[in-house]
Amino acid sequence: MSENHAAGPPDPEASRFTALWEQYSPRVMGYALRHVDPDSAQEVVSETFLVAWRRLREVPGEPLPWLLVVARNTISNHRRSGYRRAVLQGELERLQRVAEPAPAAEVPAVEREAVLAALAALTQAEREALLLVAWDGLTAAQAARVAGCSTSAFSVRLFRARRRLQAADATTTHPVRPTPWESPA
Amino acid sequence: MSAHRNSLDTLSALRPRTSVTAAWPPAVRDAALERVLLDRGTPAAPVRSRFRLRRLAVGGLATGAVLTGGLGVAAGAGVLPQDFVDTFAFWAEDSGVDLSTAERNATAPGPDGLLFSVVTMSGPDGTVCVAPLFETPESASGPVPSVFEDGGGSCGPEPSTEAFGSNAAVNADDEAHIYWVPAGRAVRAELTLPDGSGYPAVLVHGGFHGWFPTASEGDPVLTGYAADGSVVGQVGIPRLR
After folding, report:
1. What is the mean pLDDT of residues A90-104?
2. What is the pLDDT of residues A131-164, one digit of tens each?
3. How many CB atoms lie within 10 A of CB B210?
4. Out of A74, A98, A111, closest to residue B19 by CB
5. Which of A14, A125, B104, B169 is most buried, taking the most CB atoms under 10 A from its CB?
6. Is B62 helix (H, G, I), strand (E, B) or coil?
7. Is some CB atom of chain B closer than 8 A to the CB atom of A93?
8. Cβ count within 10 A of residue A11
9. pLDDT band at residue B140, thresholds of 50, 70 and 90?
10. Which fold has domain A12-80?
11. pLDDT above 70 for A67
């Protein structure tokens, strides 16, 4: 962001907000891209930060969870106003678009595809739990706030998601399903 | 997938960095900031600030309860995990049960390495609240659940004396259905799916509690057995999803 307040003394609130934007808008954008198309994601980020700008004094010292809660609400509003929930293939395409195109030396393409396919096969709640921690860098308590559930419920969700992702790692040829209980003979 | 890299490590390595920049070039981002800075004075759209955990229930078990957490009741007990207190505090208020009486009455295998547990809490007037839930193995090693997913439940003065299968209650989400059926004279029960797979049912406070995966197919049937092994009856468990 170049100079935008050349005339007059610097506005402390604008300075704080601009710093907030510079540091966190890409991360909110990354979150939004996981849920909606790129054009809508830009709207979600703008609306999220407009809320932050209007309520700057309420933005906590650790702002990312707060911003993601606002982003999530904004996305919900978008969906209520006509956004169509994506099917599995749509999820996979969206994940492939937003995930880092890592160099082959770090993550071979086949590994990248396999993990993203396994991720897309999780339920929405499980996928969200994993990515709030692995990509957004939130703690379980922070992520629970964003997911809108208790910390313990989130921890269970995360536990289940990790197990399913690792199960898919072990075998990519079988669907991941709960193991039936074996009844005694 | 190669064996040298854990899938969770791979996932972390795929954390978006340059992909966000590609989807949102700096010039577009700067223009968006300019617009936001200028829009501060325009009317704000309403934003929801709270979420609720919904509880689905049918039949005789419906509690109608909505979990909001953080009520703080019994927090002074000190020995109960805060999440347990937060989740079940409304029962202390609504039914008068004492959360410190919480007891894990039965545990069975659950989905995805979790355990299915049934916890009871009682009050001075004889009211007993029964809570089925899924918890992690680590949680199950403690006296009461600490890391768990609430599965609904009910409170009543006495154990059900209804005949086996004469009633049913079901809670459900995308992962699992959790059900309750009165036991009658049955002492053991087993739920089976059309593909032959079986899932556990545990007897607590006069009723069988159990679960089955929502993603399964066909109509689940619970069969009750008497102490002598004879079949008491069979009842279909309704699907909510």
Report:
1. 79
2. 999 999 999 999 998 988 888 999 999 999 999 9
3. 26
4. A98
5. B169
6. coil
7. no
8. 12
9. very high
10. Rna Polymerase Sigma Factor; Chain: A (1.10.1740)
11. yes
- Tell me the percentage of chain A whose pLDDT exceeds 70: 75
CATH T-level topology, domain A88-170: Arc Repressor Mutant, subunit A (1.10.10)
Q: Which two tokens stand for residue B224?
A: 């009750």
The SS3 call for residue B97 is coil
Mean pLDDT of chain A: 80
Q: What is the dihedral of CA A29, A34, A37, A42, to 10 degrees?
A: -10
Q: 3-state DSSP call for residue B168?
A: coil
> Is-contact A61 A67, C-beta < 8 A?
no
* C-alpha B192, offset from chain centre: 21
Please give the Cα distance from B233 to B221 (Å, whole number).
Answer: 10
Judge: A180–B190 Cβ closer than 8 Å, yes or no.
no
State both tokens at B68. Answer: 């909001």
Angle at A29 between CA A147 and CA A13, to 5 degrees: 95
**B115/A contact by beta carbon, under 8 A:** no
Task: List alpha helices for B6-147, DSSP H.
Answer: 7-13, 18-23, 26-38, 82-95, 137-140
pTM, to two decimals: 0.61
Contact across the interface for B6 and A166, Cβ inside 8 Å: yes
- Beta pairing class for B169-172 and B154-156: unpaired
Q: Give which of B118, B114, B116, B84 is closest to B100, Cα–Cα.
A: B84
HEC-encoded secondary structure of chain A: CCCCCCCCCCCHHHHHHHHHHHHHHHHHHHHHHCCCCHHHHHHHHHHHHHHHHHCHHHCCCCHHHHHHHHHHHHHHHHHHCCCCCCCHHHHHHHHHHHCCCCCCCCCCHHHHHHHHHHHHHCCHHHHHHHHHHHCCCCCHHHHHHHHCCCHHHHHHHHHHHHHHHHHHHHCCCCCCCCCCECCCC
Angle of helix B26-38 versus helix A12-33 axis, rounded to 10: 130
Amino acid found at A20: L
- Domain regions of chain A by residue span: 12-80, 88-170
Q: Please indicate if any CB of chain B lies within 8 Å of the CB of A40.
A: no
